[in-house]
Design the sequence.
């Protein structure tokens, strides 16, 4: 298990380093930057623009900037915004809480709904219920978040007038965005749960458990769901990537504060230290979550600790 | 599967025939006819600028499906190449490709697409490139693991010892054996591309704001949701229907 952990951690670090490099290169390819957009509009001379570039370290050769960025990362320094000149980490920290609240709430909804629908679709004795659960998860997979969100706003805010459509504040503001984002993510989880559970259900030991006269609820949870968990965990972890992108849409749709909103405005302003910081944070979150999921799966199923192939 | 493919074919045909069946010009803004509710003249109503929603819906399919199709090609062609190379040759080639794919996978798809659009601009081809590039790593991953499964079969080593070249084996033995998975995951990638294109349009990076495009229409419709819900409902239903149909076509058997 220790060897497995070390190998996974090393692979994760390489992945993050490479992802950071890719983002760095991609953002340097963008023509024009915030300084030009800001100053040239205000009638600044090329000399003034160059002076400002130098002050921000943007006139150094790329390899030097890259080195500075890596050293900064080690110290937790993500650079400064080209617009407000405040540290990127500080700007992100202000928005971080709102997005974490949204994504964690959405993930909670997604896991509960996804595993619930998946179990219903695979195990319920009524054909109608099974088909309905399957249809609900198919719809979740097929609907853009923008569309389900629009429907939810129309239903709950315009028509029923029970929930606010915009803003962030108390729990009532969280229900619609978290529900919409969570439902969208639940589709994939429900699908893999149903498939994995159907496969496990056929196992000999499940038949034995039935033959012993155990109650079917107990069998469903202990003998079927538990061994079905590793692939479900993997899919849940993979969904975090989608969740981070989905947060950008949900925050815009429901006019909530958060990292997603920050990213959209930073892209519009060509403020790329901020874009870089956010994309790096996403890559870090995604890698950590997925590595943890693999480790958790290896704890449940020791065969997974061996190297693949 | 065939049934769903037929429905998808009908959606494509209707979009292609838009110039023949659309009752109005999708770009023409009729002043004085803004936000009309559905009527005989405008079967699905008009939008904020007085454009016919039905005509925009018919023409919109062209742009939406074209972008998704082009994105699919951009994801699939290098995805198959990289996946086959990694799965067939193994060793350091596999590890090198694996590391790069892992890094790309770590960047959330939508964020990756937005970054590419910020770098390259947002005309139709660039949007497809951004969406396709973000869809490539998962596709290559699937191809790799499938090719690996075929590679370790004994008939492949038998063919090798008869002197067949890697290209011959890949083309005649590996590809036909993974065609089913390629088809399924290709369909999933296509519907994912439609959804991502919609999201990009909604976030305001969809290019030409007057274009007839389901994603752009949905984004516009949201602004007038309270007074004219039909503007958002028409493209919303079409996107969901199309993705649903493609997802069902992806299921084999």
Sequence:
């Amino acid at each position: 298990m220790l060897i497995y952990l070390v190998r996974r951690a090393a692979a994760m670090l390489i992945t993050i380093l490479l992802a950071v490099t890719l983002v760095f290169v991609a953002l340097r390819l963008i023509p024009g930057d915030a300084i030009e957009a800001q100053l040239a509009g205000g009638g600044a001379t090329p000399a003034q623009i160059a002076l400002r570039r130098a002050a921000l370290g943007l006139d150094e050769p790329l390899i030097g900037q890259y080195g500075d960025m890596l050293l900064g990362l080690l110290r937790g320094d993500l650079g400064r915004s080209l617009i407000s000149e405040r540290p990127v980490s500080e700007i992100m920290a202000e928005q971080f809480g709102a997005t974490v609240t949204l994504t964690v709430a959405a993930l909670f909804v997604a896991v509960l709904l996804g595993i619930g629908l998946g179990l219903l679709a695979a195990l319920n004795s009524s054909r109608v219920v099974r088909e309905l659960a399957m249809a609900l998860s198919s719809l979740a997979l097929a609907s853009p978040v923008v569309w389900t969100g629009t429907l939810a706003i129309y239903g709950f805010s315009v028509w029923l007038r029970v929930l606010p459509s915009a803003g962030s504040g108390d729990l009532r503001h969280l229900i619609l965005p978290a529900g919409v984002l969570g439902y969208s993510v639940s589709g994939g989880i429900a699908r893999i749960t149903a498939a994995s559970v159907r496969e496990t259900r056929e196992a000999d030991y499940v038949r034995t458990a039935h033959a012993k006269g155990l109650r079917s609820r107990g069998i469903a949870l202990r003998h079927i769901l538990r061994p079905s968990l590793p692939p479900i965990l993997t899919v849940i972890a993979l969904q975090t990537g989608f969740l981070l992108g989905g947060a950008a849409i949900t925050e815009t749709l429901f006019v909530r504060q958060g990292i997603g909103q920050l990213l959209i405005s930073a892209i519009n302003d060509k403020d790329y230290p901020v874009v870089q910081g956010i994309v790096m944070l996403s890559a870090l979150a995604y890698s950590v979550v997925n590595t943890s999921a693999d480790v958790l799966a290896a704890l449940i199923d020791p065969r997974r600790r061996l190297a693949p192939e | 599967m065939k049934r769903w493919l037929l429905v998808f074919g009908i959606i494509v045909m209707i979009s292609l025939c838009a110039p023949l069946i659309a009752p109005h010009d999708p770009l023409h803004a009729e002043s004085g006819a803004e936000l009309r509710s559905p009527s005989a003249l405008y079967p699905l109503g008009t939008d904020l600028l007085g454009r016919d929603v039905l005509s925009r819906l018919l023409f919109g399919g062209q742009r939406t499906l074209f972008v998704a199709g082009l994105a699919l090609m951009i994801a699939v062609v290098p995805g198959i190449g990289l996946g086959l190379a990694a799965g067939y040759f193994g060793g350091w080639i596999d590890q090198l490709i694996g590391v790069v794919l892992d890094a790309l996978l770590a960047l959330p798809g939508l964020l990756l697409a937005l970054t590419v659009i910020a770098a390259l601009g947002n005309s139709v081809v660039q949007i497809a490139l951004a969406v396709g590039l973000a869809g490539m790593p998962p596709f290559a991953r699937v191809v790799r693991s499938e090719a690996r499964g075929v590679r370790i079969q004994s008939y492949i080593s038998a063919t090798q010892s008869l002197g067949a070249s890697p290209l011959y084996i890949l083309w005649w033995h590996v590809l036909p054996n993974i065609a089913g998975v390629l088809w399924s995951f290709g369909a999933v990638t296509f519907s994912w591309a439609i959804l991502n294109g919609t999201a990009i349009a909604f976030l305001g990076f969809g290019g030409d704001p007057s274009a007839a495009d389901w994603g752009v229409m949905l984004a516009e419709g949201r602004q007038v949701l309270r007074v004219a819900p039909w503007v958002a409902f028409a493209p919303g239903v079409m996107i969901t229907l199309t993705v649903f149909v493609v997802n069902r076509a992806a299921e084999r058997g």
Q: What stands out?
A: The mean pLDDT of chain A is 83. Chain A is about 80% helix and 0% strand.
